[in-house]
Amino acid sequence: MSATQSFNTDLLRFLDASPTPFHAVEAMQEILLAAGFEGLDERDEWQLKPGGRYFLVRNGSSLIAFCCGSDNLLQRGWRMVGAHTDSPNLKVKPSPELHRHDYFQLGVEVYGGALLNPWFDRDLGLAGRVNYENSNGELSSALINIARPVGLIPSLAIHLDREANNNHSVNPQKDLPVVLLQSADKQDFRVLLAAEMAAQGVSDVASVLDYELSFYDCQKAALVGWNSDFIASARLDNLLSCFIGIQALLASDKESHTILVCNDHEEVGSQSAVGAQGPMLESVLRRIAGDEVSLQRTMANSMMISADNAHGIHPNFSDRHDANHGPLLNAGPVIKNNANQRYATNSDTSSLFRQLCASQSVAVQSFVVRSDMACGSTVGPLTAAAIGVKTLDVGVPTFAMHSIRELAGSQDAYNLAKVLSAFYGLAALGVAN
């Protein structure tokens, strides 16, 4: 098995294990612990050691992992990679029960900018965090993953909507309630949930108090295409970058001071206690640096690469791209540019990345949105503004971003991991402050 094949095998396994940000962080913790990283608690006083490798988790959905290198931190600075753990999905409402014509359905709320039409006629599992009271009256929580198809959103037959192929908009309130079962009796979702938790080994549930649960596509991640040119999966945006980042971090050398930050809530603006617009990363950096002056001196020698998927040029819709900036799948990572700072890339940081790609014999591409279209954004500008660090936005080119099933090239993730590993090992940036 080649290095790329081995990488992709582990990537597919990670994607399948991560139906929600909670599960993604749990999977990343397992990878880090197996590699010798030590878990930290923000409530404790930290005793960090040169050569030490650590991680911490906040809310169960955001993670920061870092390595304390042997070189002088003030002179070398941090090499940071940022990604996000969340993806657009359908979240179960707090009081979701709908009983109509002897069908039991759950009302859902759309999280993020989901492409909604692909959610119809899919086998849907259900996963997330459940908070409950145990038999002793204590509060507790558990992650659950109902990986079997427990729900679906049936399309309306074309015979009843003759214009469906010409003009079909989706009303999230009316069209997306998920069919769970058929019964003339009233059902209580929390009671069903408690029974499912008991079946999964969480037996001491006196009552379910609340939950953060999302439906997801049961179809597993896979290599697809005649020659297995592509990876198809849910949540490639942005679990792909989380996995790439963690593999690059594991390969970093002992001299470097390296950080991987994977924030939740990017798809809804990042403004939360665990989002990139919140204080999580800055608070950790302050604790590592020790004092304000050391923090500012270290930051001046540091750089962040924000890794989030880029829009590959779609062969059926090539007119949606600027003709000179249409990234191809399996043709290298993409530098994301925007004159209005929707991406944090500048010529210093992009030039450094081009050098790194050349050092690893990896091709590199550029993306700029059409001048007559609005541009998306990611955690790069938010992090740059929050902590004042030089930043670059890059990503793996992708089709069908924000669909229930996205598509990326089977060579690109491994190649970006090679480049990020080289970035982690840089002794000097060679770019302006």
Automatic annotation (TrEMBL):
One of its GO terms (molecular function) is aminopeptidase activity. CDD domains: M18_DAP. Pfam families: Peptidase_M18 (PF02127). Its EC number is 3.4.11.-. Keywords: Aminopeptidase, Hydrolase, Metal-binding, Metalloprotease, Protease, Zinc. Its cofactor is Zn(2+). InterPro entries: Peptidase_M18, Peptidase_M18_dom2. PANTHER family: ASPARTYL AMINOPEPTIDASE (PTHR28570:SF3). NCBIfam families: PRK02813.1 (NF002759). Belongs to the peptidase M18 family. This is M18 family aminopeptidase. It comes from Zhongshania borealis.
